[in-house]
Design goal:
By secondary structure, the chain is an alpha/beta fold. The chain is 43% helix and 24% strand. Among the domains are: 88 residues, Winged helix-like DNA-binding domain superfamily/Winged helix DNA-binding domain (Arc Repressor Mutant, subunit A), CATH 1.10.10; 101 residues, D-Maltodextrin-Binding Protein, domain 2 (3-Layer(aba) Sandwich). It is globular and about 60 Å long. The termini are far apart.
Length: 299
């Protein structure tokens, strides 16, 4: 069994969502599905129970997961050490980027792929970010760059470049009273429980700021993002999302509503300023800052 398959399996267990796991792993959803099926065939067991909208890990899957996590961690540590030795010897230089899930609707994957094709001597590796630990992962050297949302990072300690632009929307099922409105204000949300990712309710986040400016306090349930559409479609909650993922993943069981005034969301890739001395980091940052790339990001 390939070690990469075990790492993919562990990632899928974290997200319980094929599309999000594939996004984090930088592979296609169909390839991830084939790899999991290959593992199940080789082991002779079912690792996941599959339903129409979600997956659940089986008892056999839970057993494998304990070993897969340890083997993945050991392999990652070995790979990091080998990368350092390879860089010192003048080999391929690698850039590890901490990413969140659900990036498929945005252009950043395509942009990074285009960069990779043009720079065969550099290799980009995506690392799953732990919420709230982004800067710690950067400082500890787990990632060379991390994706941070909500604001531009102007600290002299960091270099940053915008890689995502979107706006906040509300999503709920078609029978919800809010769907009678053409557009919403944040005040319209106050009577209803909402489902939202934790980063949306951090001080400094644009959605948090919009609620504070309107003087409202929302009743919310925290989501990791993987079940926001299910919460809207099945539970009848109001899910707060960004527009591109909402449009990308939603079906006709839900209604997507614009919030006015528009709440703009951005995300930056940031790195330690001292790392700009590395040719591969400087090259990628200059590429992302180019006018052509920024035009795509803001479109």
């Amino acid at each position: 069994m390939q070690i990469e398959y075990l790492m993919e399996f562990a990632e899928l267990c974290d997200t319980m969502n094929y599309l999000q796991a594939a996004e984090k792993l930088y592979i296609s959803q169909s390839n991830l599905s084939r790899h999991i099926q290959s593992m199940e065939k080789e082991l002779g067991v079912m690792l996941f129970k599959r339903t129409k909208r979600r997956i659940e890990i089986t008892e056999m899957g839970e057993c494998l997961l304990r070993y897969a996590r340890k083997m993945s961690a050991d392999w990652s540590a070995f790979s990091t050490e080998m990368q350092k030795l390879n860089a010192a010897a003048g080999g391929i230089r690698r850039i590890s980027i901490g990413f969140i899930g659900a990036m498929a609707p945005y252009s950043i994957n395509h942009i990074l792929s285009e960069y990779q094709l043009a720079h065969q001597d550099f290799a980009i590796r995506l690392v799953t970010l732990r919420c709230g630990k982004e800067l710690e992962m950067l400082q500890n050297g787990i990632c060379d760059m991390v994706l941070m949302s909500g604001r531009e990072y102007m600290s002299p300690e960091y270099e940053s470049v915008k890689v995502l632009a979107d706006m906040v929307v509300a999503v709920t099922n078609n029978e919800h009273p809010l769907t009678a409105k053409k557009t919403l204000t944040v005040s319209d949300l106050e009577p209803y429980p909402i489902a939202v990712m934790e980063r949306f309710i951090r001080p400094g986040d644009p959605f948090y700021q919009a609620c504070a400016a309107a003087g409202i306090k929302l009743t919310y349930q925290i989501s990791d993002g993987s079940d926001l559409l299910d919460r809207a479609a099945v539970a009848g909650e109001v899910s707060i999302m960004t527009a591109k993922p909402a449009s990308y993943f939603a079906d006709d069981s839900v209604t997507i509503m614009r919030i006015v005034p528009k709440i703009e969301v951005r995300a930056d890739l940031i790195c330690l300023r001292e790392s700009m001395a590395r040719e591969e980091i400087l090259s990628l940052m200059e590429y992302l800052r180019s006018e052509a790339v920024q035009t795509v990001i803001n479109s």
